[in-house]
Write the structure tokens for this entry.
Amino acid sequence: MDAEVTLTVDGTAHRLTVDTRTTLLDALRERLGNTSPKKGCDHGQCGACTVLLDGKRALSCLALAVAHDGAEIITADGLAADGELHPVQQAFLDRDAFQCGYCTPGQICSAVGVLDEVRRGWPSHAGPDLTADPELSHDEVAERMSGNLCRCGAYVNIVPAVQQAGGGQA
């Protein structure tokens, strides 16, 4: 069965007819040609497909496109404004927080989501006090980014990049 959906991706609205079983990841990559989110595990376990969905980080391989009709989707490609890199993108460059680059778009989108969660005061398992404002400690960032895997092992540089972008300790 097919359904019509409108997805606003990186600021541009797209009207699509999709099979109701089409994931958001497949709609982005196969229908819209946006290869920023990567297909890694296709089971929500690696984070390579992470995008910002209505302002929150989401695994696009687990989201059905029809469930997000009218959604605002930002990929790593859509973070840069007016030719300037997003602070997270710049921090990843500054800190050499990537190797092969396959997971990088998902890592960057997740990091943007992490920084927003911290700004909102959302607690995590790493925080000793659930009522205190979270700090961008190494453990806090590592815990929040734990859903994004890097097979090259660039974690030693990813955590400081997220801290740098958030203005925290690095």
In short: The radius of gyration is 16 Å. Residues 104-120 form the longest helix (17 residues). The chain has two domains: 2-75, 87-165.
